[in-house]
From TrEMBL:
GO cellular component assignments: nucleus
Protein name: PNK FHA domain-containing protein
Gene Ontology process terms (BP): DNA repair
Phylogenetic lineage: Eukaryota, Metazoa, Ecdysozoa, Arthropoda, Hexapoda
Keyword DNA damage: yes
Length: 526
């Protein structure tokens, strides 16, 4: 039995939230009239984790979408992706909402064609809440096809997009379009032309052959307000008018997991934007111009600048997709396979090495001592120092990021080492003699042994770790590449002459929180 009833006109597409646990339980969402669900008699939910007003829904019949906002404190979810208080999402027909994350309080959204109540007996006679699904109303304006995910990813769906197992994906700038002006960056939103006539014919053929056409584009300019988002969306719509085939577009506007070569745009396509169809990786492909090719000549001998980056090729490699350059795919030019990958390949990290060549001694001594870490940002000092496998309970990790200044680190180190049995680890970069001396002096004055643990990690490896940290730990303050370069320019190799008892080189031994982290770590990240 439905908890609500409503009289409707024949031409109205009714919108209903249907409980997955009890399909009899349905809530009608009237056009533009908010409905709040939570721990109430209406829903029959008594779980105390649920707020009385947990989620607010507002249907927009003109666009066949529903805006949902989480009001309660505990997490809810849309299509199994968790939401927090204050977060809003747009729902489409068929989307699943969990009033509480990981619970059975789930509903799905149906747009239902209402009955005619005997006005014309040839017309439908089903109850308005029976699951007779009307085709979605055509969206009234182009903006209704746009969505924003996680505040940074823009997604566009052509209204007649059909999901497929075969995906033909393309980069946009330099691949599907080039500037008319001949400049690297467009001078305005109209400064574009289709890369070559083969683009439209190839895409039509792919579509006829059962491929869904997708565009993945990095547009960091939007994130830093250099490019106007509204104007850019219009530009996409104009390009798609020329392509004339239904297309899905993903636009990464920030330096986050969605920015190529990180895999976020692909992952969200597979999880949320392919109608639940799995992707045939063997038949799918990605084509882009950022392929890491050096300066070269065209067939008629004209010089061609080197590629501005390798991010398209790396994106395809990270995902495991077949990769083509626009020249290969559209112009059928033969492949030269001349390209450069980043110096550091995360797949090369060795898991079968020891942390240190020191096999005779315990890495961390049970006796009181001072350990000075030396290593650039991202070299893994904190990860190593805080790894409980190697530390003992009476070991204080002292860190400038937490305390605020080296002076505070010095006094904290003195305090602990003056105590009965505490050892300390100075978890700062300590690149030069001057920065190490502050701590060596304390050890000397207290007659405590002092060792240096020197991180055996290259600059490119540290940059990779740093990027990985950015993508996996949003709370950690971002470290620019300039800070890493500055460490290396200041670096003075530690020497026993500084008053250090022992210098131990610490190798990078990979160890991951979970398989997802390992998978991401082993991808190329720029
Ligand atoms: N052995 C390891 N295996 C897997 N990941 C690691 C390892 N060591 C470090 N990482 C990852 O590399 C990133 C950087 O490590 P960490 O924060 O320890 O560096 P750091 O040298 O302390 O940097 P900073 O000086 O900026 O604090 C982190 O995301 C960490 O999870």
């Amino acid at each position: 039995m439905s908890k609500l009833s409503v009289k409707t006109n024949d031409n109205v597409t009714l919108c209903v939230l249907v409980s997955d646990e009890n399909p009899e339980l349905k809530f009608i969402l009237l056009d533009n009239e908010p409905l709040t669900l939570g721990r109430t008699q209406q829903t029959g939910i008594v779980d105390q984790r649920m707020s009385k007003n947990q989620m607010k829904f507002v249907a927009d019949y003109s666009t066949a979408r529903v805006l949902v906002e989480q009001l309660g404190s505990n997490r809810s979810a849309v299509n199994n992706e968790s939401m927090i208080k204050g977060e809003k999402r747009l729902l489409n027909h068929g989307d699943k909402v969990s009033l509480l994350f990981n619970s059975n309080f789930t509903y799905h959204l149906d747009f239902v064609t209402p009955p005619t109540y005997g006005v014309d007996s040839n017309k439908r006679t089903t109850n308005c809440l029976d699951k007779e699904i009307s085709p979605k109303k055509p969206r009234s304006d182009s903006t209704s096809k746009w969505e924003t995910r996680d505040g940074t990813l823009l997604v566009y769906n052509s209204s007649n997009i059909v999901h497929k197992e075969k995906i033909a994906a393309f980069d946009m700038d330099g691949t599907l379009i080039v500037t008319q002006s001949g400049k690297v960056f467009p001078v305005d939103e109209n400064d574009w032309q289709i890369y070559s006539p083969e683009v439209t014919t190839s895409i039509k053929k792919l579509s006829d052959d059962g491929y869904k056409i997708v565009i993945f584009t990095n547009q960091g300019g939007i994130g830093v307000n250099k490019v106007n988002e509204k104007t850019f969306k219009k530009k996409i719509e104009n390009i798609l008018k020329v392509i004339k085939i239904p297309v899905q577009v993903f636009i990464a506007t920030r330096k986050d997991i969605y920015r190529k070569p990180a895999p976020g745009m692909w992952n969200i396509l597979v999880s949320d934007y392919n109608g639940g169809l799995s992707v045939d990786m063997d038949k799918s492909l990605f084509c882009g111009d950022a392929a890491g090719r050096p300066t070269r000549s065209s067939a008629d001998g004209k010089p061609i600048k080197k590629d501005h980056s390798c991010c398209d090729r790396l994106f395809a490699m990270n995902i495991g997709l077949k990769f083509y350059t626009p020249e290969e795919y559209f112009l059928k030019e033969s492949t030269e396979e001349l390209y450069a990958l980043p110096v550091f390949n995360p797949n090369d990290v060795m898991s079968n090495i020891l942390y240190t060549d020191l096999t005779s001694k315990a890495l961390f001594s049970p006796n009181k001592e001072m350990i000075i870490m030396v290593g650039c940002p991202g070299s893994g000092k904190s990860y190593f120092a805080s790894n409980k496998l190697f530390c003992h309970d009476r070991m204080k990790i002292i860190n400038r990021d937490t305390l605020g200044s080296w002076q505070k680190c010095v006094s904290e180190a003195k305090k602990y080492l003056s105590g009965v049995s505490w050892s300390v680890v100075i978890d700062n970069t300590n690149p030069d003699i001057e920065s190490r001396k502050r701590f060596i002096d304390i050890a000397k004055s207290l007659k405590i042994p002092c060792r240096v643990f020197l991180m055996n990690v290259s600059k490119d490896h540290a940059k990779h770790n740093n990027k990985f940290r950015e993508l996996t730990d949003r709370k950690h303050q971002k470290v620019s590449d300039a800070v890493i370069h500055s460490y290396f320019s200041k670096f003075q190799e530690p020497s026993k002459n500084e008053g250090i008892d022992e210098i131990v080189k610490i190798n990078f031994v990979p160890h991951f929180k979970d398989p997802e982290h390992e998978k991401l770590y082993k991808m190329f990240l720029l």
